[in-house]
Design a protein that fits this description.
Layout (H helix, E strand, L loop, with lengths): L2 H24 L5 E6 L10 E5 L5 E6 L9 E6 L2 E8 L2 E3 L3 E2 L5 E15 L7 E14 L5 E9 L2 E8 L7 E7 L2 E2 L6 E4 L14 E4 L8 E2 L3 E4 L5 E7 L7 E7 L5 E7 L8 E4 L2 E2 L2 E7 L2 H6 L2 H4 L17 E2 L1 H4 L14 H14 L3 E4 L9 E2 L12 E5 L5 H11 L2 E7 L7 H11 L1 E7 L6 H16 L3 E4 L15 E4 L16 H9 L16 E2 L13 E2 L2 H10 L6 E2 L3 H4 L5 H6 L6 E8 L3 E8 L2 E8 L4 E6 L8 E8 L10 E8 L4 E6 L4 E8 L8
Parallel strand pairs: 24-34, 25-28, 28-29, 29-30, 30-31, 32-33
Antiparallel strand pairs: 1-8, 2-3, 3-4, 4-5, 6-7, 6-12, 8-9, 9-10, 10-11, 11-22, 11-23, 12-21, 13-20, 14-15, 14-17, 16-19, 17-18, 18-23, 19-20, 26-27, 35-36, 36-37, 37-42, 38-41, 39-40, 39-42
Helix pairs in contact: 5-6, 7-8
Length: 694
């Protein structure tokens, strides 16, 4: 070893071992670790490092530089076949250059973890956090330390960079991140193109071969890819904190090779990230499964986040909510009392009571001017906007008193700009006003400042016991594990668009399920009860219609991850209507999820268990189908089946459905015919006296 590095080397070894011992003490599970040290300026024969998942399905090869001009790179196989090749790692820091060019390996730490992680409100009661990890402790050409960390899950590759605190380097400015994904072959790509970095992340999905993806155009994440051999890939990120959001751009390397390259949302000065050390990038994640449904069953993104930062979570109570904005602020399909009046609130709250709806939302008036004080009309805050003060004429105290009397909690809406500079003050006021939850809207950017602002909101909201929906925002990154009061994200072109366009078709719903929803919960303005055929559809602002049969829309409450779903139509649109009994009973979070059938943009059949009862939902598009679904997931015993499915004449009136009951055992099959753009839902409950589920 070179003499001037010996002291540094010994000190680093001691630090690494101490850090690992502390980590091992804290971890709850099976952890093993080994520290390997290297000497010499370059890794030489040790430049390739292998990491294999515990089920041996995924194998990663990390190549460290063999010269001062190289950067680390990695490749991966899935089930023995190449998926990634020549994926480059790069982090350009002002004053340092690309910190990963010409790095040399000082130490390598191998570890593994196998433990159960509790999920408070999601698609399962817990997740298996099981991976093998390689941490590469690297020294830059300027003798700085930077680590790259790879984790190999049974269904994912995840990696990130970390710059620890160190002498002579306290604060950094990231000029760019050159992460690239060299995807093997030419799989079918399902991508959303972004117009620029200032976006609501609400777009239709384009289906194209990878080599046909538009070059030099921003691509949103998650992006999903289907390979000819039946493998599926989704690219996204996890644990986005104190950093800029990431999109992708296609770069053509050659006629035979294309790669997707990281693009970070820039700050006003053009830099990407500024912060004190330690600097930790989000996890860059490639989910890999052997079927499309596996992407939706995965909880790996959740596991890649830090444990809950909230001590007491007993006040967090998910449930369904009204959302009058979508239906045009109506009660029975025609204008009546003002939506913000006490009289109208009482009608909606009574509807909540008789329908088992946990939350009534108080949002804005008929001009979209919010519930809080501002002299200008519309959603955009003005100079005198005060989002802590109810607007003149709003009897919020009276609405709250009536809601408390009836056992209904209140939800609301706030423009994010109205919170700037006064987040703590605002949430202290919201707690006193009696808001249990709120939608924060119109972020429309994922630069570092906006990402940090969103986390500031979550922290203040948790201190004051307020649950949060984020709208006009980027995809989830699993942060609901750290802040369980984060109930939902939008970041999807959803059913609100049917008020002014025909872009939210049944196949779009299914494309969203296999792209955007891979990242996590997806708020979607559910509950439209006026289905029309495509030929009859016209956008309507008040009392809008929806595309797809009623059963297709009932199924969204099972198929979509959404712990606080809306029932966004007006109350009398539901009263006495076939299928509304299913919406009254269906849970909003689950103990277990299984995808029984999945084809991107075509069909999704989801089974979810709550306690001992299973709920099934099917969303279909493009054609009628005869489905034959095995019920082997039910386990031992006899079960009562309640089934709501498209009526034989649903092609004429897509609101028509049939309801039937039967019994079943696990050896049986559920045979259902779904109409064009149709679906079905089912509740399957153990019959008393049957053996307990194993």
């Amino acid at each position: 070893m070179l003499p001037h590095l010996e002291g540094m080397y010994r000190s680093m070894n001691a630090t690494f071992l101490s850090d690992f011992n502390s980590f091992g003490t804290r971890a709850m599970g099976i952890i093993s670790a080994m520290l390997i040290t290297f000497s010499g300026h370059f890794a030489g024969a040790d430049s390739n490092h292998e990491l294999v998942s515990t089920n041996t399905q995924i194998a990663i090869s990390v190549h460290l530089p063999a010269s001062v001009a190289e950067n680390p790179a990695w490749s991966a196989t899935f089930r023995g076949k190449p998926v990634f090749d020549g994926c480059r790692l790069s982090l350009d820091v002002h004053g340092e250059g690309d910190m990963l060019t010409g790095v040399h390996l000082r130490a390598k730490r191998l570890s593994s973890l196998n433990k159960r992680v509790r999920i408070l409100f999601g698609k399962a009661a817990d997740a298996l956090d099981r991976y093998r990890e390689s941490r590469f402790v690297l020294e830059t050409r300027k003798r700085r330390r930077i680590d790259i960390v790879f984790r190999c899950y049974n269904d994912a590759v995840a990696f990130r960079c970390e710059i620890p605190k160190q002498d002579g380097m306290r604060r950094v400015t990231v000029a760019d991140e050159g992460t690239s994904f060299g995807i093997s072959g030419n799989p079918v790509a399902y991508v959303q193109y972004l117009e620029n970095y200032r976006t609501s992340h609400e777009h239709n999905v384009t289906t194209t071969p990878l080599h046909g993806v538009r070059p030099d155009t921003l691509i949103d994440m998650p992006a999903t890819f289907a390979f000819k051999d039946g493998a599926y890939l989704a690219l996204t990120e996890a644990s986005l904190r104190r950093y800029a959001g990431m999109s992708l751009i296609r770069s053509v390397v050659s006629s035979a090779k294309t790669e997707l390259v990281c693009r970070l949302a820039p700050r006003p000065d053009g830099s990407k990230v500024v912060g004190d050390l330690p600097l930790i990038t989000p996890w860059r994640v490639a989910l890999l499964t052997d079927r499309a449904g596996g992407l939706l069953e995965s909880n790996t993104l959740y596991c890649l986040n830090e444990p809950s930062a909230i001590g007491d979570t007993g006040w967090i109570k998910p449930g369904k909510m009204t959302w009058s904005w979508w239906n045009g602020n109506l009660y029975d399909g025609k204008p009546a009392e003002p939506i913000l009046s006490l009289q109208m609130a009482r009608k909606y709250i009574d509807f909540c009571v008789r329908s088992g709806i946990a939350y009534h939302s108080v949002i804005a008036d008929e001009t979209d001017t919010p519930w809080y004080f501002q002299s200008n009309k519309g959603v955009v805050p003005g100079a005198d906007t005060d989002a802590t003060r109810p607007r003149d004429g709003l009897d919020l105290a009276g609405i709250r008193a009536y809601a408390e009397l009836k056992g209904v909690r209140l939800w609301t809406w706030v423009h994010q700009a109205a919170l700037r500079g006064r987040v703590e003050e605002a949430f202290a006021a919201y707690e006193k006003l009696g808001w249990s939850g709120m939608m924060i809207d119109f972020f429309d950017h994922d630069d570092q400042e906006t990402v940090e602002f969103a986390e500031e909101i979550l922290k203040a909201a948790a201190r004051h016991h307020v649950m949060i929906h984020f709208h006009g925002i980027w995809k989830p990154t699993g942060l609901q594990r750290t802040y369980p009061n984060l109930m939902n994200h939008e970041g999807a072109l959803n059913l609100e668009y049917l008020k002014w366009s025909d872009r939210c078709t049944p196949e779009h719903n299914l494309l969203m399920a296999f792209t955007r929803m891979v990242a996590g919960p997806m708020d979607y303005h559910l509950g439209g009860f006026r289905s029309v055929n495509r030929a009859d559809f016209k956008p309507i602002w008040a009392a809008p219609n929806v595309l797809g049969t009623r059963c297709h829309h009932l199924a969204t409450y099972v198929c979509f991850d959404n712990p606080n779903p809306m029932l966004s139509d007006y109350p009398t649109a539901y009263d006495g209507q076939p299928g509304f009994d299913f919406l009254e009973m269906v849970p909003t979070w689950w103990d277990e999820t299984r995808i029984l059938m999945g084809d991107v943009g075509e069909i999704l059949v989801t089974a979810r268990r709550k306690g001992k009862t299973w709920y099934l939902g099917c969303m279909s598009a493009k054609k009628a189908r005869d489905l034959d679904i095995p019920l082997s997931f039910l386990g031992i015993g006899k079960f009562a089946v309640r089934l709501w499915t498209d009526a034989p004449d649903a092609n004429r009136d897509p609101n028509h459905l049939t309801y039937e009951t039967s019994t079943a055992k696990s050896r049986d099959r559920l045979r259902v015919r779904v109409s064009l753009d149709g679906g079905f839902v089912a509740q399957i409950t153990p019959i008393a006296g049957t053996p307990k589920r194993r």
